[in-house]
Design goal:
This protein is of the alpha/beta class. It is built from 14 helices and ten strands. The longest helix is centred in the C-terminal third of the chain and has 21 residues. The structure holds ligand NPW and adenosine-5'-diphosphate. Ligand NPW binds next to helix 4, helix 7, helix 9 and helix 12.
Amino acid sequence: MLKALPENIEVNDLIQRLDRGPAEHKGNAGKALLVGGDTGMAGALLLAGQSCLYLGAGWTMLQMLDHHSAHANSNHPELMISQASIKSATKLQDLKADVLGIGPGLGQSELAQTYLTSILTLPNAPVVIDADAINLIASSENNLLLLKIRNQRFPHRTILTPHPGEAAKLLKTDVATIQKNRLQAINRLVELTQSIVVLKGQHTLIASPDHSPFVCQAGNPGMATGGMGDILTGCIVAIAAQGIHHHLDLWESSCIAVHLHALAADQLVKKGVGPIGLTPSETMIEMRSIINQQLKQLNASH
Ligand SMILES: NC(=O)C1=CN([C@@H]2O[C@H](COP(=O)(O)OP(=O)(O)OC[C@H]3O[C@@H](n4cnc5c(N)ncnc54)[C@H](OP(=O)(O)O)[C@@H]3O)[C@@H](O)[C@H]2O)[C@@H](O)CC1
Ligand SMILES: Nc1ncnc2c1ncn2[C@@H]1O[C@H](COP(=O)(O)OP(=O)(O)O)[C@@H](O)[C@H]1O
């Protein structure tokens, strides 16, 4: 039988490591960089960025491909948004982000490919690969090779978060085949990519070359709305960025994020916010509430 996520990973114990000491500063919460948001999909990158902000990253920087949207966002002036260009792709090294995420609304342009290559060849920093960045890997043997080389050199520092459509592209099959045997699919995805993998959809699975699959029993069909995956990406990046100083690796950060994301959606449905019309924007705020409530409870019990 599959192990369930909250019990076996002891998510609460992991969340406790995010507790902030009185003298902590933003450097302790980590520098996050997200890349995506091509024309017509700027919202995907903004959602990932806002989620990263609400889940506690010290700095959230966005490299936006759509030049019309690459400017300060008055609803969220905290986000440091700049225009993506071939020049900045090569400058990623200088930015020294603690954790990077690529994919939300990225598209599959030449510039998107340039960023993916730059990020896959960056040393050390944990990387979250989502959406079109996964599609780019699925459609290029060279990208898959770069991913495998990265995993050989820096194991446990890359995660892919495919939904069943993206998983089908990676495995050169169809969505029905993925859904018929999700366990087999995630095992094949881990074997193919040598990465941590989150296979999204009802009963999200998470596995890695060192961890057999766990299932997330939380979550509901209210989550079937555009942008819901983008906020998961932002959340993983935020928690992994804090994890650098708070001793959480990418696997642990991803388990927390998957659990929080689904739990938040379930809590909102219980309150009558959804399933119909549940939004990613509401879900990320609920995720923030849950994490802070849990920290408060854990502190009170010690
Ligand atoms: N506000 C914005 O700017 C937004 C921008 N966005 C950005 O748009 C880009 C393209 O993303 P997208 O959503 O348009 O289509 P995409 O993900 O390629 O394929 C969808 C197909 O995959 C499948 N499938 C998916 N889930 C499944 C499941 N659980 N269970 C079963 N099947 C499932 C399903 O295939 P079907 O079954 O229909 O054959 C479905 O039709 C991407 O970069 C993203 O970040 C979005 O984030 C939205 C908000
Ligand atoms: N029926 C469902 N039950 C549980 N979770 C769901 C369901 N439908 C969607 N989700 C979750 O919502 C998110 C959707 O992500 P994704 O398809 O990548 O959306 P987008 O690309 O629009 O951001 C995933 O985390 C997925 O697990």
